[in-house]
């Protein structure tokens, strides 16, 4: 069994000797120095020494400045760090993240390291089981206007979203503990609206309430939310750290799916030269830490992530990973019904179509916004072009949505 975690980096430098650089990383981030060590000490330290596995240099064809880079793979012995994500990240990219043009692209953790992580408790299949929906993409709606609103207002907004036939409703990530809509009362009010809507729609619904507060109170807040009836949680993972998600997701008393919000991710992944690659940041590490659903920008909407990077996030959430359950991909931001065929083309059926403005901004109102998405999903999964579907009687909501936002072709 492999006893190392392998980090892949991309390093840009017009002149560097990348072999030398790789060796200095492998030694510097493990035993500190090597050649100076006496032979007896070397024998003792060998098991701690990082190893350069490969260095692939890409010379720009035209010699253009700023385009020469190398992909460097280094194996770090598991013996050097404890079985937690902070220890792993500090080892492979702590000081190094501040040392020139270098980006952490990927991490392959060992079976032994992964064994400390149960991963998503529900995962994609578990979320589908809770909702009883197995044959189509799910639809999630986002509360939009939340700050400064009282419980009655949020309950009314929730009810309208639920009537639109959505499968999940999530809080806006900027809704924190506040006197107008305290956590437990908000959960009770929204779940009451969910029950009322279910009487009309016959549809089950998950409400991902935003879990916030100081880290020391998060687990208690989560338990309170669950006791009040919350059947899902939203969590701003990157502001707290992956280890906090890991703790929450393996807590047996917090027995509901957790949706990871990507707030702050833009500080890490967009630069080609610095930070952490999107598929690692929003894919592999979120899944390892236990996210059941992961939100991230799509290639089509208002906050755009390049398509290849986006599909790499999807793959990291869905490909085999040490036997962990898969996490639901939720490409988001600026999504409207006219984008549904593109989303399904790239993501298939195992995706959550997620919208805030694209639901609340519908010309016929919030509930119609949900209906328009459901009609678009039905058309796209049946291979019917949206324009054709919009002409059908009963699909007036879709027609109005297309008039408002249009259809984006590939
Ligand atoms: C950048 S991914 C997170 C998307 C999100 O949380 C959101 O509120 C998107 O809202 P929109 O009105 O753009 O659908």
Automatic annotation (TrEMBL):
Which Gene3D superfamilies does this UniProt record tie to the protein?
Ribulose bisphosphate carboxylase, large subunit, C-terminal domain, RuBisCO large subunit, N-terminal domain
Read off the Pfam families from this record.
Answer: RuBisCO_large (PF00016)
Q: Which GO terms describe its biological process?
A: carbon fixation; L-methionine salvage from methylthioadenosine
Instruction: Please indicate if the UniProt record lists Magnesium as a keyword.
Output: yes
Alphabetical list of InterPro entries matching this protein: Diketo-Methiopentyl-P_enolase (IPR017717), RuBisCO (IPR033966), RuBisCO_lsu_C (IPR000685), RuBisCO_lsu_C_sf (IPR036376), RuBisCO_lsu_N_sf (IPR036422)
User: Which EC number(s) does the record attach to this protein?
Assistant: 5.3.2.5
GO MF, any single term: ribulose-bisphosphate carboxylase activity
Keywords in alphabetical order, please.
Isomerase, Magnesium, Metal-binding
Domain Ribulose bisphosphate carboxylase large subunit C-terminal: from-to ranges: 127-405
Keyword Isomerase applies: yes
NCBIfam families the UniProt entry points to:
PRK09549.1, salvage_mtnW
- Its protein name is 2,3-diketo-5-methylthiopentyl-1-phosphate enolase
Q: Which organism is it from?
A: Paenibacillus pinisoli
């Amino acid at each position: 069994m492999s006893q190392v975690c392998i980090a892949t980096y991309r390093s840009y430098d017009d002149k560097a000797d990348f072999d030398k650089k790789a060796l200095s990383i492998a030694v510097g981030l493990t035993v500190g120095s090597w050649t100076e060590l006496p032979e007896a000490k070397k024998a003792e330290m060998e098991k701690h020494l990082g190893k350069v596995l490969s260095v692939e240099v890409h010379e720009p064809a035209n010699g253009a400045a700023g385009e020469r880079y190398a992909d460097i793979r280094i194996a770090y012995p598991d013996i050097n760090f404890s079985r937690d994500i902070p220890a792993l990240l500090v080892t492979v990219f702590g000081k190094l993240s501040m040392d020139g043009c270098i980006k952490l692209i990927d991490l392959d953790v060992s079976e032994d390291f992964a064994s400390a992580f149960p991963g998503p408790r529900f995962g994609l299949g578990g979320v589908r089981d809770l909702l009883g929906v197995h044959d189509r993409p799910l639809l999630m709606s986002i509360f939009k206007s939340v700050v400064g609103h009282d419980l009655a207002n949020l309950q009314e907004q929730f009810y309208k979203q639920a009537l639109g036939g959505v499968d999940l409703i999530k809080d806006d990530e900027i809704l924190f503990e506040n006197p107008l809509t305290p956590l437990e009362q908000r959960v009770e009010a929204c779940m009451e609206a969910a029950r009322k809507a279910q009487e009309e729609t016959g549809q089950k619904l998950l409400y991902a309430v935003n879990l916030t507060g100081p880290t020391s109170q998060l687990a208690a807040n989560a338990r309170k939310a669950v006791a009040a009836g919350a059947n899902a949680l939203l969590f701003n993972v990157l502001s707290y750290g992956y280890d906090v998600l890991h703790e929450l997701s393996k807590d047996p008393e917090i027995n509901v799916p957790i949706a990871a919000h990507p707030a702050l991710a833009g500080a890490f992944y967009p630069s080609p030269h610095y930070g952490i690659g999107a598929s690692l940041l929003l894919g592999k590490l979120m899944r390892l830490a236990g996210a059941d659903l992961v939100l991230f920008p799509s290639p089509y909407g208002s906050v755009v992530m390049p398509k290849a990077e986006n599909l790499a996030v999807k793959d990291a959430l869905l490909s085999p990973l040490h036997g962990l359950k898969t996490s639901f991909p939720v490409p988001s931001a600026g999504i409207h019904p006219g984008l549904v065929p593109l989303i399904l083309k790239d993501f298939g059926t195992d995706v959550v179509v997620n919208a805030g403005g694209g639901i609340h901004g519908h010309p016929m109102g919030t509930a119609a916004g949900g209906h328009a998405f459901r009609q678009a999903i039905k058309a796209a999964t049946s291979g019917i072009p949206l324009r054709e579907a919009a002409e059908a009687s009963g699909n007036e909501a879709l027609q109005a949505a297309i008039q408002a936002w249009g259809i984006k072709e590939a």
